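thread: overnight batch results

M.L. [08:02]
morning all. the overnight job finished for the chain we discussed friday. pasting input first so we're all looking at the same thing
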Amino acid sequence: MKDTRIGLIGTGMMGGAIARRLLASGYRLTVYNRSRWKAEALKGYGAIVADTPMDVARQVDLLITVVKDEHALEEVLFSGEGVVHARSYRDEGSSKVKGWLTLADVSTINPFASKSIASRLVEHGIIMLDTPVMGGPQLAEQGNLVMMVGGSREQFERFIDVFNTMAGRIFYIGDNGSAHTMKLALNLQIAMIAAALSEGILLVERSRLDPMLFLEILNSTYFKTGMSERKGPRMVKGEYEKSFALEMMLKDVKTINDTARTLNISLPMASMLEQCYRLASKTELADKDYTALLEFLRIVNRDERKGS
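M.L. [08:03]
and the structure it wrote out:
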């Protein structure tokens, strides 16, 4: 068993996969999730399930959060049974957990919110790193995520072995908020590629050409992507096994546009993309994979043809 005691809050698809990776690698892990059954599912892998976020923070050296957005993060940190209330216990407790706690936030959140939260946490003896990742649950279980880090380099290097267990490549970006900015810029590429791929498939289908041939040609060129190679064929077949929900992609695109407004820049394509994902999220496709945007476009165009 490795010495570092780790806590993890948020055991959904990505959080659960990270938890299983850490447990398989020999770390002691305490977990919490608002829907307790999702945390209980990790007991069989060796995890300890805590009753509150505060209970997790009382007994760990490093706390990892994988939650929906900055509002969910603030809830687990600052609510009545939140992480910040563990400080008095830590200051008076055993030497193993005495003093400062390091928080690594894997969530995708607004970078300005991240900086504000990090500043507030210092008052409670908590040092926050933003550690968003690229890659889905499968890569998380393999330890092959790509991680970006913002915040204290000293604290990052203190837990480098843990981060190396989670990620195959790690990029230190800079101050708090910087890694979340980079993550948003990367997620914008994913959202746009999904939209472009969806529209390309739809254009070919409506022309009564073979969309699989379209993918074969695309994947023979410089312009191929991992999405066109791996998800493209499933999209054509209408198979949208979820690795990242469409409604979560809407959340990220909205966060991108919120960040752009704070920076006083215009991202016209991102603005149009947000409208498209918002409409798709109002359908039964919201909990499907984000590539189900194609199915939404199919439905819209089918309905338009009926009305013409």
